[in-house]
User: Fold this.
Amino acid sequence: MSEVRRDIVTDTWVIIDTKNDTIPNGVPEQHIDKGKCPLCEGNEQQTPNEIWAVRDGSPVNQPGWKVRVIPNINPILQVEGELEKSGTGVYDMVSGIGANEVIVEAPHHTPHFFDLSDEQVMLVLQTYRMRIEDLHNDKRLRYILIFKNHGKAAGASGIDHPHSDLIALPATPIRIKQKLNGSREYFSYKERCLFCDIIQQEIEMADRLVFLSDHFAVITPYASRFPFELLVIPRKHQFSYTMINDEQINDLAHVVKRVLRVIHSTLNDPPYNIVLNDSPNLLPKQNYWTTITDDFHWHIEIIPRLYRRTGFELGTGFYINRFAPEKASALLRQRL
Assistant:
């Protein structure tokens, strides 16, 4: 089992694989022949047994599904076992308890997420909601992260079958803590949601607003870390993705497809990451965050990976963005 160790200086958590004896030598590039893809319909026996699937009455672990959720074949965290905390001197650690799932987004290969039908994207987004709701019932799990990697530079595997990843963690990530703390501090001073105020200001100023749908705003953040970084955020206050309804999911499917299509055409199919920033699981700790329903606001980050982080960025925590978010927003608006 892995260990989840806390860096006492920075309050960050690191998952350490204590069992691996192979010396790392970069990440080997994989190329999976489409005819042998384990995620394709008809190859269900090549994957672990499914956790959940959208089916029209077909048998479990057989063809006939629309979206399928399976355990990662090489999980970094293990769902079985007890969550144990321990320490050695000043160092803290918890056992590598969690979940590592793959959400297979379609039965067959599709070149790009935006090429999926609206109905199919809706089913994927509904699956996100369902898996978060289910995993929040586990008191060992503090945070559920869903993300999608596209392209080698964004960390995608050699299996180019459309899929997302889900990792359930026994600790809240530092970046989420920072967002939670910033939101709570703002709420304690203003008695308003920080994200709601950001949405209102960006709509009024309009220079970083890419577009508005019925339920969502798409903006290039004021302090964008990366060129063409995008924030997709519900216009109505919701602290958790589990609160999204089917009408909003239908709208979100259109929004995500539209955004990814314009990113693809404008930046020549760049590698990118999509990250769902949700609230933590409130079940493990009573009264963990008494104002979270008012001060936090779930959102999605879409991050084109046009260059690698440098030693300056790694050493300082600063980012250098060489294309202003106002220029990025203006260009994307022209091409929508």
